[in-house]
Amino acid sequence: MKANTERDYHRRIARVIEAIFAEPGAPHTVDSLASVAHLSPYHFHRIYRAMTGESIAETVQRVRLAQAAYRLTVADDSVTTVASNVGYDSPQAFSRAFRGFSGVSPSAFQTRQKRLSAPCAEGRQGAEDDVNASVDANTAGVQVPFVELIELAPLDVLCLRHEGPTATISQTFRTLWQTLGHGVKSARIQGTIGIISGDPEEERGNFRYLAGVIPAAPIEATGQLEAVRVEGGLYAAHRLVGPYGLIAPTFAALFVGWLPQSGYEPDDRPALEFYRNRAARDRQHECITDLMIPIRKE
């Protein structure tokens, strides 16, 4: 596929995902979304699956459940109300889908997010690798919230700038790996990272996201790739075990709930996402992501 054609398809698919995001409870169909992409339904479905790695139905469910997780975090809505708002006919059907998505029930998730909003940080300093030692305990399948203070060393990262809605960030990471090429062996990559500036709820404002890798040895930044230095400093770290769709609501719980009560205030450095593993598509609730908020004493 030519580069110009691929970029055009990416823009079309991004418009489709934006439409799903805008109205997650709407009765989206292949035909209705194909018209958003200005493609025939037959070609649209094939192109969509090839570029996203999932079907339209899978995207719609993922977006609905991610939106539900956000509502369960930031609002006092009941599970029944949230289920209806994101397009489920019954709380039972919603609960089954949400448990399959997150690994816990909606009510257990809501309780977990409220606990995460409490000021429960434990001060500690160490290298970035110390985050690996802070695996959260689990009780009856419910992650026990934990926030740890980490002194992060500076990092040199090779990045690709994300364009489009946050729901298409996975496409940017796929493009990043394709750009790096098959010649870059995994042994030369120490980790995968997301670098976040601004508020993702204001995507058309100051939001900026860089998809990056941490190379073990210097790799030349060519084409669209950028070499970025992540400054070290103090971070509040939380280990999220669950699908990437829970990252935004978990950051919301940390910023809106935990941070104001913690005795710290946000620093001007970017927030970070360290992706610790790769889970199979049907095991997304086993994904491990360390979420890092830059902080300083009030």
Brief write-up:
With 298 residues, the chain is α+β, with helices and mostly antiparallel strands.
Write structural notes for this entry:
The protein is an alpha+beta fold. The chain has helices at residues 3-22, 30-37, 41-52, 56-74, 79-85, 91-102, 106-116, 169-180, 247-258, and strands at residues 138-139, 142-143, 148-152, 155-161, 189-197, 208-215, 225-230, 233-241, 264-266, 271-275, 288-297. Among the domains are: 3-112, Arc Repressor Mutant, subunit A (Orthogonal Bundle); 155-230. It is built from nine helices and eleven strands. Strands 3, 4, 5, 6, 7, 8, 9, 10 and 11 form a nine-stranded antiparallel β-sheet that branches. Strands 1-2 form a two-stranded antiparallel sheet. Helix 1 (3-22) crosses helix 2 and helix 4 (56-74) packs parallel to helix 9 (247-258). It starts with a helix and ends with a strand. The model is unreliable at 121-144 (pLDDT under 50).
